[in-house]
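To illustrate the input format used throughout this study, we show a single complete record. The first block contains the structure-token representation of the backbone; no residue identities are included at this stage. The design step must infer an amino acid for every position from geometry alone.
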């Protein structure tokens, strides 16, 4: 197995690992704000998110950027909470530019969450460019898998069972909001 394949698999496994469910919840709540005919837009958002966390993964791994892990562990569920609230509140005119920039910013935060894990792995490597690229491609593929599963379930329930898209938006956003609040309460005391 090549170095690229090894880190590609690590990135993919890392994103779909149920123990790192906060990232999965973020991808799901991001999807929940959109309906079936907006799959392409969500795919672009997921890519913006990947670009964001690729930047901070690189900066952190190269020891250019360092942020308290306690702060990051609090901010990750905060990004989930904000996204869930944005899905539930009746914002009629979501500016595409604002949504893309915010998603990219949230990706920066989530990337810092991955950085300690990746720094440990890359400590043995002399060239980090290939592993870093492969890891991020693996993450993106994992996110696309989550996106595909979500939109498949959305298609089945909306098209076949005639359940309104609003049900999924509110259900997934409400669930994500609850999970994020619990995580913020859990992680908050470490900040003080």
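Output of the design step:
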């Amino acid at each position: 197995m090549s170095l690229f394949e090894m880190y590609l698999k690590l990135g993919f496994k890392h994103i779909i690992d149920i123990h790192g469910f906060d990232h999965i919840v973020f991808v799901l709540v991001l999807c929940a704000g959109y309906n079936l005919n907006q799959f392409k837009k969500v795919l672009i958002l997921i890519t913006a998110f990947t670009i964001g966390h690729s930047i901070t993964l690189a900066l952190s791994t190269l020891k250019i950027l360092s942020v308290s892990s306690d702060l990051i562990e609090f901010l990750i569920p905060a990004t989930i909470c904000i996204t869930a609230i944005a899905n539930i509140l009746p914002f009629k005119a979501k500016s595409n530019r604002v949504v893309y920039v915010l998603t990219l910013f949230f990706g920066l935060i989530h990337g810092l969450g991955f950085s300690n894990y990746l720094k440990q792995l890359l400590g043995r490597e002399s060239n980090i460019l290939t592993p870093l690229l492969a890891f991020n491609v693996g993450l993106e593929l994992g996110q696309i898998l989550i996106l595909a599963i979500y939109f498949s379930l959305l298609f089945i329930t909306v098209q076949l069972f005639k359940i309104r898209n609003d049900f999924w938006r509110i259900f997934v956003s409400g669930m994500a909001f609850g999970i994020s609040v619990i995580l913020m309460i859990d992680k908050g005391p470490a900040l003080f």
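Structural context for interpreting the output: The chain has one domain: 3-191. Helices lie at 3-16, 21-32, 39-61, 69-88, 96-122, 129-160, 165-187.
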